[in-house]
Design a protein that fits this description.
2 domains; elongated; alpha+beta; four-stranded antiparallel beta sheet
Length: 447
């Protein structure tokens, strides 16, 4: 478990470093875009690459199904490469021999920290919800604006059905243009669903409270969130001087809101005021950066999925090779079926044997060709009746019997069809040895 956690933190750290480099490349562009990138870096802590790898392995790539040659194990290469980004080999040895008391102590410490952060989060949510319920509509203001008697700064409360809380003591201290600009900033938080995004990151902070990078990401998200709202306020036509004066007035007359997520004076105030009063504005991202961002997003998501699919496909091929070689030298017996079953051709694999009950020659031909039974059409009635029970006994145990590839039975089944029934199996116009009864008569293991 410790090794898996270290892997996840290390990979998430690499992802975060990549996000930081991207935000540096986009420092002249929209803060809203950079905020989304930091949000992705936060969400990455909730979605380990191992989950994407598992999804890819469930999909898998089709195995080559070549029994005579050892496959090129691209999956082994990917697994070896993963050691470069998963330095937990030593941890596995320590974890295997380490004391369970240490693991329990670490788990208790994590749980205590998570509960502390969660309790603070819950108390802040309840306090904000209480202020929102107690607030009253603001005359002449938008429907989502409320007046509160609490000594807080203008802020947005609640995640769902959010409202702007305006302190009553501030209403007479700001001019109309200043109040409009400050109110526009808070309404922009609502338009951007910033409280929802902030609470999503708070979940990450609760689960990974012990990891400093998580808190650093939160700080970056806060800075870019406020910058994005400032950009939108200025783009909507509000004067920078009135806007900056309104923010400074809020700082002078209001107490910071401790129980709300999106507040007027959040972030680096000095940097914000300089930007508001300056002339620099965000540039368009452009086609090249847009394509690079799309490519990075697709690559980051597709790489672990593809790796999981390749490794699983290589694993299936390895199992096919091992079982094909074991079954090729197996002893095979066949006899009339003991009784008809509701589900024909039941395959039971385990230990050193594979048993196929209530099968027909048509079923066996389908196995020899590696196709579904319904693809074997035509032929005489004796392909479907009588029915047989077939037993294949191997010298070594069948590998992963629950996922046995039926095509691994091609050679023993071909040998059976040739020796017992005189049938020749041809694949791509090439007769599969033994080819008919004449070749099977010399040393067949079938009886």
């Amino acid at each position: 478990m410790i090794a898996a956690l270290v892997n996840h933190l290390w990979q998430s750290t690499l992802f975060c470093c990549g996000a930081w480099l991207i935000t540096l490349a986009l420092r002249a562009n929209s803060a809203s875009l950079r905020h989304w990138i930091w949000l992705l870096a936060s969400v990455k802590f909730l979605v380990p690459f191992s989950l994407l790898f598992l999804i890819g392995s469930l999909i898998g790539l089709p195995a080559a199904r070549i029994a005579d040659e050892q496959p090129v194990m691209l999956g082994d290469a990917l697994q070896s490469a993963s050691l470069l980004v998963s330095p937990t080999g030593a941890l596995r040895a320590i974890e295997a021999s380490g004391s369970s008391v240490l693991l329990v102590a670490l788990l208790a410490a994590w749980l205590g920290g998570a509960l502390f952060v969660a309790v603070r989060w819950t108390l802040a949510w309840r306090a904000a919800n209480f202020l929102a319920r107690a607030a009253r509509p603001a005359p002449g203001a938008p429907a989502d604006a409320r007046i509160t008697d609490a000594d807080i700064e203008p802020a947005v409360a609640r995640v769902f059905r959010p409202v702007v809380l305006l302190p009553a003591a501030l209403l007479g201290r700001l001019s109309a243009p200043q109040m409009d600009a400050v109110l526009a900033h808070e309404q922009e938080h609502i338009e951007r669903n910033d409280n929802l995004k902030a609470n999503l990151h708070r979940l990450v902070e609760t689960l990974f409270w012990f990891y400093p990078m998580v808190w650093w990401i939160g700080r970056q998200m806060l800075e870019e969130r406020e910058r994005a709202c400032d950009e939108r306020v200025l783009e909507s036509g509000h004067a920078g001087a009135d806007y900056a004066a309104g923010i400074l007035a809020v700082c002078q007359h209001c107490r910071p809101g401790q129980f709300v997520s999106a507040a007027a004076t959040s972030g680096d105030l000095t940097r914000r005021v300089r930007y508001i009063l300056g002339s620099a504005r965000p540039k368009s991202v452009g086609l090249v950066k847009t394509l690079c961002l799309m490519g990075a997003t697709i690559l980051t998501t597709a790489a672990p999925l593809f790796a999981g699919a390749v490794v699983e496909g290589a694993h299936r091929q390895e199992l096919f090779v091992v079982n094909s070689r074991a079954l090729d030298a197996a002893e095979l017996t066949i006899q009339p079926a003991s009784g008809r079953n509701a589900d024909p051709q039941r395959v039971i694999a385990g230990g050193n044997e594979v048993v196929i009950r209530d099968t027909s020659l048509r079923d066996l031909i389908a196995i020899a060709y590696g196709v579904d039974r319904w693809r074997v059409v035509g032929g005489p009635d004796w392909l479907d009746s009588p029915r047989y029970d077939m037993r294949v006994v191997t010298q070594s145990a069948v590998a992963d019997p629950e996922n046995l590839d039926m095509l691994a039975l091609r050679k023993p089944v071909t040998r059976l069809l040739a020796s017992r029934f005189g049938l020749a199996i041809q694949v791509n116009r090439s007769c599969q040895a033994p080819c008919g009864r004449s070749e099977a008569d010399s040393g067949s293991a079938t009886r």
